[in-house]
Design a protein that fits this description.
Chain lengths: 327, 259
């Protein structure tokens, strides 16, 4: 059964346009030009219980807007949305007690107090029973390894430590649905990895439904079985990660290391040269012809090494966003 | 209800972090009393009574005004709500099962409690130094007027701040104007019945004198009757209704634009 259902969701903003400079400011006092920004434009999807779905798309694609609609912060312009049977923007406490929105750049902790105080406050706000609170907190503290810093003023924590605390504060009420907006933003590689491991285990342990948005493909590659790609407010892909490759990448990359001198003109007939710096060349060829072409290269040249690969998922997605045609 | 007790407790702790800030703020209050005190002393040096106030009555009035303003006007929500709305911190609250305005009202109460404790100390000190003849006779009406004053002040402040939903950049000036008006017309600086009769009665149709003057007048035994209490409650009701409407509209705008 779908935990989250979104049908034909549209969210348009009216934004006023100001001409540059002081005269523009004065003009805008009296007469403002408005135009519509289509932040989310006719998006539909369903998410089942326990799914971990990644929303990807460039800045301003509409990912965060979608999460905000799902958490009840925004009214949609039109469309139907239900989560756990509730309409998010009714902001019913019964719904609010079952989800959590974590935004990497926003913080809810009391800056001047140790994080534990904010946890206690959230416990009361969400009306978590004492025993459950203790159990949840102990579990999270263990999982994130923050026992030593629970009583340190939040302002004295490092960014990574603070993000962990933010996560704990957001999870004190054991939400069934988690909206994670850029959970790894600004973290170093080690912390990113830890955060990912945590999200993965939280998803498994509690069968929690998780939607996360991220700029880091690694987040998505490692965590999400299912990916939703949004660009300019439109949903352009929804499915398994490897399907992106099947759908958009009809080519493969042949990497060759040559033993003898080779001119780039000699290679042009095989396919599109992506990279050429003697002795290494990367050639993009049609998927179906890849084995044949590789064989011909081996025949025609002295080759030290050859490698046939799927294109990088980052590259495919980047090319999808820049509107490059693959067909 | 319990969640708001926790808010109260955590805010109480938070206040102790800013000790120096707090002490300076209290110092400013005392300074203000001293300034007005010497102003009035110099007025009284040439006459024994001004508009029916003796020197002692005036000093008693000003000391109590300090106390009551500690109770009524210490309201950190006035400094914070506007910013939290315009920078989107409000989002943190909208996704949780907690009322944002109630949350801030609770924090205000926490701040009021700590301010009262200090004000009692300061007043005792000033009392020892100046030894005014303090005559107080508080009654139930005074108490109810005080409660009403606290609530009116909160509502009025939030109502002024609500403009942030439509003009996120312009709250500060607006707030400042309201605060200055309040200082002038609440009775904090001088007893309002010094004003010409027409001005005094006109002021009764604004919410300002219900903030300090009337509760204070009632405490020092001036004739403040049920009619005044009723008017105070009417203001409370009007402002509550207005704030509810305006805030709901503001939230709708906020949620439409999304910060």
């Amino acid at each position: 059964m779908a935990v989250i259902e979104v049908k034909n969701l549209k969210k348009y903003y009216k934004v006023h346009q100001k001409e540059p400079g002081l005269s523009g400011s004065i003009k805008s006092l009296f007469h403002r030009k408005y135009y519509d920004v289509k932040a989310v434009d006719n998006v539909s999807f369903e998410i089942g219980e326990g799914e971990l779905v990644g929303f990807i798309g460039p800045n301003g694609a509409g990912k965060t807007t979608t999460l905000k609609v799902l958490s009840g912060l925004l009214y949609p312009t039109s469309g139907f949305v239900t989560a756990l049977g509730y309409t998010p923007w009714d902001r019913k406490p019964a719904y609010q007690k079952q989800f959590s929105l974590v935004m990497g750049q926003k913080n809810q902790l009391w800056w001047d107090l140790p994080a534990i105080e904010s946890f206690i406050l959230n416990k009361e706000i969400y009306e978590v029973p004492d025993a459950q609170y203790k159990k949840t907190l102990d579990g999270l503290v263990e999982l994130l390894d923050v026992k030593d810093i629970l009583k340190v003023q939040v302002r004295k924590l490092s960014l990574g430590q603070r993000m962990k605390m933010e996560l704990i504060a957001s999870l004190i009420h054991s939400p069934k649905i988690l909206f994670l907006d850029e959970p790894t933003i600004g973290l170093d590689v080690v912390m990113q990895k830890k955060m990912r491991d945590f999200i993965k285990s939280y998803n498994k342990k509690y069968n929690a439904t998780i939607i996360l948005t991220s700029h880091y493909m690694d987040d998505v590659k490692e965590l999400c079985q299912r990916v939703v790609i949004i660009d300019k407010g439109k949903l352009i892909f929804d499915g398994a990660l490897d399907e992106i490759i099947k759908k958009y990448a009809d080519h493969k990359l042949i990497t060759v290391v040559f033993g003898d001198e080779v001119k780039s003109q000699q290679l042009a007939k095989f396919g599109q040269i992506k990279e050429f710096e003697y002795p290494k060349a990367v050639i993009s060829v049609k998927r179906s012809e890849a084995p044949k072409i590789a064989a011909r290269i081996l025949e025609d040249f002295t080759v030290e090494d050859v490698n046939i690969e799927e294109p990088q998922i980052e590259d495919i997605i980047r090319e999808v966003f820049t509107g490059k045609d693959f067909a | 209800m319990r969640k708001y007790f926790t808010v109260f407790a955590i805010d109480w702790q938070n206040q102790f972090i800013y000790r120096l800030n707090f002490i300076l703020w209290r110092f400013r209050n005392v300074l203000r009393v001293l300034m007005t005190y010497y102003l009035w002393i110099s007025i009284f040096s040439s006459q024994t009574s001004v508009f029916g106030y003796t020197k002692e009555q005036m000093i008693a009035y000003l000391l109590l005004a300090l106390f009551i303003s500690s109770l009524v006007t210490s309201s950190p929500s006035n400094d914070n709500v506007g910013g939290e709305v315009s920078n989107g911190t409000l989002n943190n609250f909208l996704v949780k099962p907690i009322g944002y305005l109630r949350y801030w009202f609770t924090r205000d109460l926490s701040s009021k409690l700590i301010n009262i404790i200090f004000a009692v100390g300061e007043i005792s000190l000033l009392y020892i130094i100046f030894r005014p003849s303090l005559y107080v006779s508080p009654n139930l009406i005074s108490l109810l007027l005080l409660v009403s004053a606290v609530i009116i002040y909160f509502l009025l402040g939030k109502l002024a701040i609500s403009i942030v939903f439509w003009a996120p950049e312009n709250t500060w000036g607006f707030m400042f104007t309201i605060l200055v008006l309040m200082e002038m017309f609440t009775g904090l600086i001088f007893p309002l019945d010094l004003l010409p009769h027409w001005a005094f009665s006109t002021l009764q149709f604004t919410p300002f004198p219900y903030l300090i003057y009337f509760p204070l007048a009632s405490i020092i035994g001036k004739p403040v009757d049920l009619r005044i209490l009723l008017q105070s409650f009417v203001w409370m009701g009007i402002l509550y209704y207005l704030l509810k409407k305006v805030w709901a509209k503001g939230l709708k705008t906020y949620s439409a634009s999304g910060i």
